[in-house]
Amino acid sequence: MPECRSLLPMESDGFQVVTEVITHKLNHIPIFKGDFGSLSPKVQRFIAEKAELMNPAGIYICDGSQQEYNDIVDKLVERGVLTPLSAYENCYLCRTDPRDVARVESKTWMVTKEKYQSVCRTPESVRPIMGQWMGEEQFCQELDSRFPGCMAGMILTDLFRVNGHQRRPMYVVPFSMGPIGGPLSKIGVELTDSSYVVLCMRIMTRMGTKVLEALGDGDFVRCIHSVGLPRPVRRMFIKVINHWPCNPEKVMIAHRPAEREIWSFGSGYGGNSLLGKKCFALRIASNIGHDEGWMAEHMLVTSFVLSHLSFH
């Protein structure tokens, strides 16, 4: 693979922690919340690598608590992202940018060394419909045109460059697909600059400190997400609709199955930003299942209990 800034690994001694993460490039990144020192070396290195790449205002390690949930809801209501609805308790309306309302299969990629590890063999004139493949060299170019400095107020688009100084925080979201510690459960860690994503990951997965305790020094799926629109937004160039930051022109969702890694950029829509969903539970899990001898299903298991019956 060609040299790629976004995939550059960090040595184990490439950073140190006081009350902030100090990388070997002397980027001082404060810890807004959480105990960085209690994280496993693998998680620490993952966070430090991507914090150096994306240069956020600080690192916020999510614990999954009710207080954390309440704080995030209050912040999103204050910003106008959420609108409380009075008919039901703990119910909110979230309006998004009309351009960011669905998954984008045309911008979703599998990245493998060989094309036919990802897609079916078809004649050259026929486009496969079961998936999209991207080569490693192009993948590096796509990453490096998006992620460096993406939380620091600098992003390159096809039309212009936006420079700002109010950086976004980087949230660390440890989550478990399945019951925490369960024999079939899998763990991921998502890094995101979206507090809305944090809120939804708490709803959609088991998330927080207990996941880190169950993980120990084990392996995990690495998930990197950015809305792709650093603050402050210069409104002469971009109009943020419904307080929903996104960058539809630069959306990319890419999967590295062999490395157990997911990169998502430019979208806040659930299927594109909650990386435990289709990205992990279907695409990456299919590859994990192939290696471990099981199959990932795209399905839901549910039960209904009738109050007047003793069974369900």
Commentary on this structure:
The chain has 312 residues and is α/β, with parallel strands linked by helices. The chain has a single domain (57-292), classed as Phosphoenolpyruvate Carboxykinase, domain 1 (3-Layer(aba) Sandwich), CATH 3.40.449.10. The chain has helices at residues 41-54, 66-79, 136-144, 195-204, 209-215, 270-273, 276-292, and strands at residues 15-17, 20-23, 28-33, 59-61, 82-84, 92-94, 108-111, 133-134, 154-156, 161-163, 170-177, 186-192, 206-207, 221-226, 252-256, 261-265. The strands form three sheets. Strands 1, 2, 3, 4, 7, 8, 11, 12, 13, 14, 15 and 16 form a twelve-stranded mixed beta sheet that branches. Helix 2 crosses helix 4 (195-204).
Task: Summarize it.
With 312 residues, this protein is α/β, with parallel strands linked by helices.
Poorly predicted tracts of residues: 154-165
The total tally of domains equals 1
By DSSP (H or I, 4+ residues per run), the number of helices equals: 7
Q: How much strand content do the residues show?
A: 15-25%
Question: What order do the helices and strands follow?
Answer: EEEHEHEEEEHEEEEHEHEEEHH
Radius of gyration: 20 Å
* Relevant CATH superfamily: Phosphoenolpyruvate Carboxykinase, domain 1
Q: What is the overall shape?
A: globular
Q: At CATH's second level, what is the architecture?
A: 3-Layer(aba) Sandwich
Q: Which CATH class applies here?
A: Alpha Beta
Assembly of the depicted chains: single chain
Structural class: alpha/beta
* Helical content (DSSP H or I, runs of 4+): 10-25%
CATH fold call: Phosphoenolpyruvate Carboxykinase, domain 1
**What average pLDDT do the residues reach?**
87
First-last Cα distance: 53 Å
Number of strands: 16
Largest sheet: 12 strands, mixed
Subunit structure: Monomer.
EC number: 4.1.1.32
Keywords: Decarboxylase, GTP-binding, Lyase, Manganese, Metal-binding, Nucleotide-binding
Pfam families: PEPCK_N
